[in-house]
Amino acid sequence: MKGLEVGVEMEATIEIIGYLACCLVFATFYVKRILTLRLIAICSNVAFILYAIGSTLYPIFILHSFLLPLNLYRIFEIRKSSVRT
């Protein structure tokens, strides 16, 4: 019985992470500053990766595994260009 309770709690946690990821994506459409957008997008990527692993949703895992380093690179570019200015 104890194992079943842990499974249900884990499923609920995974579902909450999925909803958090969706909220973070929504937030990226709200912000105006590109750096803030990228930072929120990174959090969204991490949340979606965790959600995809927990739910065995491989297409979502693959997508956000590629988007995460892209967002990190774009932040690096923003930081690099702001240092020059």
Key features?
single chain; mainly alpha; 3 helices; elongated; transmembrane; transmembrane helix; membrane
What's a concise summary of this model?
This protein has 85 residues and is mainly alpha-helical. The protein is 92% helix and 0% strand.
What does this structure look like?
Keywords: Membrane, Transmembrane, Transmembrane helix. The chain crosses the membrane at residues 12-30. This protein is mostly helical and 85 residues long. It has helices at 2-30, 34-55, 58-84. It has one domain (2-84).
Topology record:
Blueprint: H1 2-30, H2 34-55, H3 58-84
Helix pairs in contact: 1-2, 2-3
Question: Based on CA inertia axes, which overall geometry fits?
Answer: elongated
Average pLDDT works out at: 93
The arrangement of helices and strands along the chain is HHH
Determine Rg (CA atoms, Å): 16 Å
Report the helical percentage.
over 70%
Count of discrete structural domains: 1
Low-pLDDT runs of 5+ residues are none
Number of helices: 3
Helices and strands: which structural class? mainly alpha
* Portion in strands: under 5%
Strand element count: 0
Keywords: Membrane, Transmembrane, Transmembrane helix
Transmembrane segments: 12-30
